[in-house]
Amino acid sequence: MYRSRRVRTTVVLLAHGSPDPRHRQAVQAQAERTATVTGLPVRCAYLETDTPSPEQLGAELTGTVLVVPMLITPAYHARVDLPRAADLLGRGGGRVVMAESLAPDPMLVAGCVEVLDRCGVDPSGRVVLVAGGSSDGVAARGLAALVARHGPPTWRTTTLADLDPVLLERDPAVGTYLPEPPAAVLPFVLAEGVLHDRVGRLARSRHIPVAAGGLLGTAALDRLIGRRVGLSN
């Protein structure tokens, strides 16, 4: 059974934000599921593009504010933006507690397996996971390390910038050709949106199947977010 925190705790799912409304819809749906399980009020805030921003939401919050960073790669936002967001979310007098980001956690790999299963792709096959790029390459290295530790040996990782050479069966790192193309490409994203669609278009142009859909909505992500909130099952 789940055990929830008591008294005056508001959970904030702090997401990146996207110009694509599907991202916001997926985060909001996750907030509703988390609220149902915990019995706690769950709000959403966004680092970019969407509203409310941390500053806007923070003006409304009092009591304990438990922030769950909805970040699945340890990129720039995790190191730079989260401290500022925590300060802004506490501007209304709330006591902000910052939970760990979703990354790196093996439950993210379990979520990818669920997406592949849902799309009819064998998770033990040759799958390429595609992350968004970051200015310092931290996101790419973080995903590669996660898959190396917890993923099947048949999986490999790349970023959108390097995806086309991979789909052409050429390893961009060493310039050698791969023995066969991947069985599927999986956009490593929380929700459908800009990156998800760009990855999909490029893969389909090479006649390679895409495991469409984000990680939100999988049982693995529900459990992972529950753990970050401080629940056990």
TrEMBL record:
GO terms for molecular function: lyase activity; metal ion binding. InterPro entries: CbiX-like. SUPFAM superfamilies: Chelatase. Keywords: Lyase, Metal-binding. Pfam families: CbiX. CDD domains: CbiX_SirB_N (cd03416). This is Sirohydrochlorin ferrochelatase. It comes from Marihabitans asiaticum.
